[in-house]
Amino acid sequence: MASDASIAVGDWHPPNSSRSIPARLLEQGDGLAVEAEGVALNTALADKIEFSPRVGSIPRRLTFPDDSVFETRDNDGIDAWLRLRKGARTGFIHGLEAFRFRLAVFAVGVILLAGLIYRFAVPALVEVAVLVTPPFVPQMIGSGVLASLDRTMLLPSHLPEEKKQAIEAGFEKLAAVSEGGRGAYKLEFRDGGSIGPNAFALPDGSLIVTDDLVKLADGDQAMLLGVLGHEIGHVERQHSLRQIYRVAGVAGLILLIAGDVGSGVEDILTQGGAIIALRYTRAAEAEADRRSVEIMRAAGYDPAALARFFTRLEAVTGDHSGTSMLSTHPGTPERRQDVINYARELESRAPAR
Amino acid sequence: MTVVDTPPVAAGRFPRAAFTGSASEYFGIWIVNVLLTILTLGIYSAWAKVRRKRYFHGNTVLLGRAFEYHAKGSQIFIGRLIVIGALITINVLGIIHPLFSLATWLAILIGLPWLIRRSLRFNARVTSYRNVRFDFVGSTGGAFVAVTLGSMVAFLSLGLLAPLASRWLWRYILNNLRYGDRAFSADPRLGALYRAWLLPVLLFVLGGVIVGVIVAIGMTSQQTMGEPNEGLVLVIVFLPYLVLLAFGLVGLIYRTGVRNVVLSAALLDGRHELLSDIPRLRYAWIAISNVLVTLLTLGLMRPWAAVRMARFTNEHTGIRIHGDLGEVASQIEASGSAISAEYVDMEGFDFGF
């Protein structure tokens, strides 16, 4: 270097121009000067000059107050000068990024953190969210979903009035022994059309029973109530609200780290997240099945009545399959056996009243 | 190199872009980005994006000089905050009342051209080369024709008119792109776009036949043997994913072919020729193997994959300056807020070059 105060060699651009002149950056008193072949092109106080932060070894830009720019590939020269002037804190992030053993520790840390967040933080946040959700939210979700289902898939029920009342009366006894009590639930009859024999619960406590389900029961009232007990279980444990929050939480986690994984991998992670969410649905179904047994027993009905529903469902749909990774519900034969086992277990624990 | 893509005769005389970054250097930047993003509960992700973008722009070297990315982390952060807030509100309202989500999506659909135009402008204005910023001067009406009308035409014609839509889109993008006070122009020929369309269509038909054969075999074997074959069931369960993957792949090959045609037909300042000659099948192979390697290494090889892809595309992109580019002057326009750019980015539209 010709001058002992020379900091770096690079190119100088006049303000907003593509023209460039090979130049040198020099220290000059309190400031910096750019000069080419002994001619000063620009000078400024160091504090008025904007230094672009270092990223890898891409060119560094020094923007002068008049918008002229000195660009250099000599990152080390600039860093050495900055450290002398401003202390070791400059380039902290770049220091972390240097390819050293420390990065391996960071990598392990990232994998562990992501695992911990998925395993503990997401479930915890789901519980917190469920706790702080004001009661009007499930109410509005329930009435909103029912209204849109009525418009699209459901038709008014064709069941005779006395039939409905009989089911209603049986259900009252069931609801009375549930956690929410009689007022927490509302029974709705609908013609489900292509949905077939089914019942489902909305977060506000509305339980929808399709005509086909009543037909499938074929007068077996206890069996029908067993299914309703299962739906009460879903409402008590707020399964649908939990599911909504869980999906949002996993999506948030993916979004958190996704910016840097590429769009192809991001899509796969989102799909994978959906498959993992199904595992929670299966757990929720099993939980609701057991709750049905408990409620039915408490109300004085046959605790294992739900098992008869599974037997009939198998006969109608021909579902003899086991549980696979992709099913929302556990396999029907497996659920029937679980219901019978749980009913027996309760029986042996406390002999019938 | 490949049977389907022969570079133009004169391609040898085109100066090519290069990528000067390395996987090990980017690994440090990437892992620190992810780590700090998790530790700051996502807040750092905006600054992480700036570092990532600066690394890739700054290592894209054309005619001896690098590009630069100028967006500020705070700008991106505010943009993301507003977009995420809006998306959460829309989703919550959508759960509460389905009709509401319909209305919002309709509004976004109508507002999309505006968002896309603003996003293109933001991305152009925060990019510079040789101290001169890019700019985008397209109108909202133009975006409506290029994006909304174009994708409707492509969709309704079942892809038969996709080259027409691509022509609209790229004419809108390139003819409104400015480098300082110089304009880009492009008038890609429809015939060339249809030639680029042929290979992906053939692959699509071939894929459809293979899927059809698999399904047919599945049907007959179930009828003859009664018991479904385990492996076959697995194939059929994952069939939707395979179809999606194939669809994505065909889209990738098509978009690459279109990029080759439109960039090779583009001029800067009316005379300097641009060139893109990416071999499509090798591009597809790099994209697929990148995703596989990333997944198999729990994401740790993602930096290697990203650098590999950047190097490959840069080396197949070039520009030939006729005469002298002269001094290009730029007026630095305020980049505006990053809201629309972040929204368009999150929705996964990609108009990058």
**Biggest protein-protein contact in the assembly:** A-B, 54 and 66 residues
List the total number of helices of chain B.
11
Fraction of helical residues of chain A: 40-55%
Span between termini of chain B: 23 Å
* Radius of gyration of chain A, taken over Cα atoms and rounded to an integer in Å: 34 Å
Main β-sheet of chain B: number of strands, strand sense, barrel status? 10 strands, antiparallel
Strand content of chain B: 5-15%
Q: Could you report the average pLDDT of chain A, rounded to the nearest whole number?
A: 82
> Main sheet of chain A: which strands, in order across?
4-3-2-1-7-6-5
- Uncertain stretches of chain B: none
Cross-sheet strand order for the largest sheet of chain B: 1-2-3-4-5-6-7-8-9-10
Given helix and strand content, the structural type of chain A is: alpha+beta
Binned, the helix content of chain B reads: 55-70%
Order of helices and strands of chain B: EHHEEHHEEHHEEHHEEHHEH
